[in-house]
Amino acid sequence: MFTTTLGEAAQFAGRRFVRVALLPALVFCSLLVVVALVGGARPPAADLRVWKAQPVEVKALLVGGFLTAVLLVAAVLESAQSTLLRCAEGYWGRLADRSLGRFGRRCHRQRLLRTADGSAQLLYPPRSRPHEVRPTRLGNILTAAELYPRLRYGIDAVLVWPRLFPLLPEGLLGALATARADLSALLVRAALSCAFAALGAGYVLVGGGPPALLPGCLWGGVLLAWTSYRGALNTAVVYGQHVRVAFDLHRVDLLEALGEERPPDPEAERERWKRICLFWHRGIPPHHETPPAENPRTAPELPAARTGHGISLTQVTVAAAATAGLVAFWAPYA
Predict the structure, then answer these.
(1) Nearest to residue 96, comparing CAs of 68, 136, 126, 56?
(2) Sign of torsion over alpha carbons 129, 135, 137, 139
(3) By C-alpha distance, which of 243, 122, 232, 237 is closest to 181?
(4) How far apart are CA 223 and CA 58, in angstroms?
(5) What's the whole-number mean pLDDT along residues 198-207?
(6) Which helix (H) or strand (E) is 20 found in, with range?
(7) Residue 200 in contact with residue 31, Cβ under 8 Å?
(8) Which of 2, 125, 176, 281 is least crowded, fewest Cβ atoms below 10 Å from its Cβ?
(9) Which one, of 303, 306, 305, 281, lies nearest residue 292 by Cα?
(10) Mean pLDDT over residues 84-101, rounded?
(11) Which helix (H) or strand (E) is 188 found in, with range?
(12) CA distances for 210 relative to 34, 196, 201, angstroms
């Protein structure tokens, strides 16, 4: 059984690597080669004649170098999954958090005030916790899913999820794995699209390629990045729903695995989970008579909702890319 399970896990990991990292890296490197041929000093037909004139050994060396570059990019993407996700959630470091992060949080707090209660439940943290609002839409969607078990059952999702995950049934595990792989693939596609827009447009600008190729690379990369990010938002909503279902249906299974009795009412369950989380987090025994309070962070006052729609970081980025493409396209004719 262990050998079969290990083989299935390795097979799934291999499929996930091909889908999330290898294929996007292959397309990315191929598009860069196409831009280098089209935007170079010589016409593509001349490059093709030079390629045909090369001996077999040189061709094999060039193809091997290209495949090595693809594998290297894929390996970097595979190892940067967590970094990409945290960046997409809005964890950018102290300097960026004080500038772009503050701008993004202000925008999404205003949107939270204007959003209906039904849709806001999946897209944003509750209005009572404005300090939990993230500067990006993806960060708010995942934060809302993370706060759900705490608000409903008093469960700290960060502490409980690693212990609950092994107890989930196979069907829910497959749904979670699929949603997580889809989310990673879309984020990788968005990151590579941004890199292609910068590298492709920079190469054409420096190499003096066709003027129409520069906005094509810039706008094409930004458009693909935007569509990939929009797809990642929908996938994040699905992933968050699976996480909510896992806590709703299987939190009692974890209590049974821990040897705990099922609480008789919701208030007793919240108190039980509070004690268990304090034990895991701070080492306080679950049956201690007076566990310390959680000391929740005080929520700041919400700003008054402004009329109109706030400008998001995505809109600012798209506008900047469009302006840069127009300027670069018309600069040679000025």
Answers:
(1) 136
(2) negative
(3) 232
(4) 37
(5) 86
(6) none
(7) yes
(8) 2
(9) 281
(10) 87
(11) helix 170-207
(12) 13, 17, 11
Largest distance between two CA atoms of the chain: 84
The sign of the CA dihedral 255, 260, 262, 263 is negative
Q: Quick check: 196 and 32 in contact, CB under 8 A? A: yes
Which residues does 188 contact at the CB level (< 8 Å), separation at least 6? 20, 21, 24, 77, 81, 84
Q: Residue 99 is encoded by which pair of tokens?
A: 């500038």
CA within 13 Å, CB half, 294 = 16
Contact 149, 252 (CB under 8 A): no
DSSP 49-105: HHHHHS-HHHHHHHHHHHHHHHHHHHHHHHHTHHHHHHHHHT---HHHIIIIIHHHH
pLDDT tens-digit map of 125-181: 888 888 899 999 999 999 999 999 999 999 999 899 999 999 999 999 999 999 999
Q: Could you tell me how far CA 38 lies from the centroid of its own chain? A: 32
Q: State how far the alpha carbon of 197 is from the alpha carbons of 27, 88, 173, 214, 215, in Å.
A: 14, 18, 36, 9, 9
Could you count the other beta carbons within 10 Å of the beta carbon of residue 267? 10
Q: Hunting for tokens 């420096």 — which residue is that? A: 206
Choice between 235 and 108, residue whose per-residue pLDDT is larger: 235
Structure tokens at 215: 């906005």
- Is the CB of residue 180 less than 8 Å from the CB of residue 239? yes
What the block records as the tokens of 57 is 């050994």
Q: Helices (H), strands (E): how many in the chain?
A: 14, 0
